[in-house]
Amino acid sequence: MTTFRSTARQIAVAAKALALFTLLLGIAYPLLATAAAQTAAGHLANGSPVSAAGSAGGNAAGSVLLGQSFTDSSGAALPQWFQSRPGTYDGAASGGSNLGPSSTELAAALEDRRQAVAALESVPPEDVPADALTASASGLDPHISPEYAYLQAARVARVRELPEPAVRALVDAAVQGRIAGFLGEPTVNVLELNMALQELDT
Amino acid sequence: MAGWLALGQFLAVALVLALVHRPLGDYLAHTYTSGKDLAPERGVYRMLGVAPRSGQTWQSYLRSVLVFSALGVLALYLLQRMQPLLPASLGLPAVPEGLAFNTAVSFVTNTNWQSYSPEATMGYAVQAAGLAVQNFLSAAVGLCVALALVRGFAGRGAQTIGNFWVDLTRSVTRVLLPGAALGALVLLLGGVIQNLNGFTEVATLAGGTQSIPGGPVATQEAIKLLGTNGGGFFNANSAHPFENPNAFTSLVSVLLMLIIPFSLPRTFGTMIGDRRQGYAILAAMAGIFVLSLATMTAFEFAAADGPAGSMEGKETRFGIAGSTLFGSTSTLTSTGAVNSMHDSFGALGGMMAMLNMMLGEIAPGGVGSGLYGMLVLAVVAAFVSGLLVGRTPEYVGKKIGPREIKLACLYVLTMPALVLAGTSLSFALPGIRTEIEETSMLNDGQHGFSEVLYAFTSAANNNGSAFAGLTANTPWLNTALGLAMLLGRFLPIIFVLALAGTLAAQDKVPVTAGTLPTHRPQSVLVLSGVTVLVTALTFFPVLALGPLAEGLI
Lengths: 202, 553
Prior knowledge:
The complex is a heterodimer. Helix content of chain A is 49%, strand content 7%. By secondary structure, chain A is mainly alpha-helical. Chain A folds into 2 domains: 1-46; 49-200, no CATH class. In chain A, α4 (164-174) packs antiparallel against α5 (190-200). The longest helix of chain A has 44 residues, at 2-45. The termini of chain A are far apart. Chain B has a domain at 369-552. Chain B contains 19 helices and 4 strands. In chain B, the strands form 2 sheets. In chain B, strands 1-2 form a two-stranded antiparallel sheet. A two-stranded antiparallel sheet of chain B has the order 3-4. In chain B, α6 (124-154) runs parallel beside α13, α6 (124-154) packs parallel to α17 and α16 (445-460) crosses α17. Classes of the chains: A mainly alpha, B mainly alpha. Chains A and B meet through α1, β2, α2, β3 and α5 of A and α1, α2, α3, α6 and α7 of B.
């Protein structure tokens, strides 16, 4: 009986505790933090938006953090742009392929992409870097490796009828090294590179 | 080159933890032993109607844990079912019954297994006022249980093991909320978003459109990591650029996951009045951590010779080393967050993620649960050592008698039983097997088997990471994984609190020339050996059917 009464009392205490902590941790804390973040660091808090050069009123062209697709509606590469890693870049549905190392589906996709990239860039298939063949974890990877960016420079220059050294110079400027020299990997942000490219070409 | 960089980021993590674990460990010890309440805490106790200085027996403490957690499941379930009525829900419908049950259990048990894709399922109200609240509270419960066990070791002839409501409140007010707020600030400055914008359609540079998601992410992200919860705001979890934009935030994430679990051994040492014992526990945790991280990293670099260059399911900005550091940390704690897709790891790299969980998540383990898991293994190790040299088994001044060792063994047996039973039943029951093979498994053959094994390992250990190709939103998996999470969380908690009660009631055995020391390097080795052997013997056969078969043949 005491156990029963004590349990009944504990249920009341637990319900009050849950309500109280929900108000504090689930409503007050995130709302106050959001208000503070919007006031003090609105650009970061809103996903580091970027505006396309030349667009009227500086229309948002997306977020510098989220990769974009530079393909036509059927998924074929638009040759005037630097290409992101394979994927659909759907901001409403993030995720990877989750295909495992022994997947035949993955092996076939890798081989198809290797042939397609080799043909597009006019290089031998074995020269295509891994990030050009593989889907990322998020499906929104904004980066490619500097290697893949340089591989694309000649084709972009040819299609846009720009001098290749000028395009390679854009890639040079776009390469971001490791943070503090040892964290992460060297990267090239594809959206930023393509925005610089568009600026050069207009 | 790659090896040196991997070493560099590891040393950065080790340096920060070496600097922080002592002050933080002592701060935690002070937090849970102090006789003073802060003014807001006194307000909380008045509202709850609890007397903060009254201790609870282990049975009463356990009842509080179970009642509080059961109400948490119920509230979170109802919140999801009522989603259309809640503000800022982005027009999303009510979460279906089976999924809502699975998710409620998942977040209350500190698992954060996600059978759903958040972008298409959970609005901001459920995320912030439901899921994130349990991120705090489930971590706080883990801390409470760990501290109760430490009081058991520290106590002498005591009938009580602390007051749950006080431990819970202090965990929130003095540890998790300040820590999470600080973490959220750092993440925000690193580029993690914090808004209520919903989805914004933008025109892309190439002339298409893209849907840019929003959300109060930084605040949820910080506690997801600090509380070793792991449930992502987005489907891609910490691989999503809005959750983890760069290598710096990724390193901060790793530190947030490790900081409390690696400080708690100091808390233990300080509270029992023998810091060497805390260091022994820390040494065993750190040794296993380093060995496991090095192994997974080596496997993934070795897999880079393959056609995918080890980059399928990895982000360019993190690369291989940044992915294995995060993946190892996440599965060795009970976090389960991912910044790369474990399903696409090499067979042996993916096996390491599973093995880390199968160790019982004790190196350093989840917030609180890592310490109590390791202390239970320390009891087993002391028992084994005692038997080997023919002395009465003792650990930190407490006799390890039949009751103590029975409780420790029940703890150790629970998780493997759940993992092996769940996986076996998934393939042994004919109707279920069809559903698993035709609906749930993405990959086929051994890798598909590994997806199911990973799921039950993750659920029973309250980790929450996945071989995410698995479609777990089915009646069988929602139910079976939900039960595995519940039993995997609360059966061990029952055994730990019972152990705390029986230890607290004992007097201290004085240290004599005949006492077998438990703080020397050889006892650290015995403890590590017991941990690994228990796992290896239990799980070797099932690993041979999945990742070992896939990786070695």
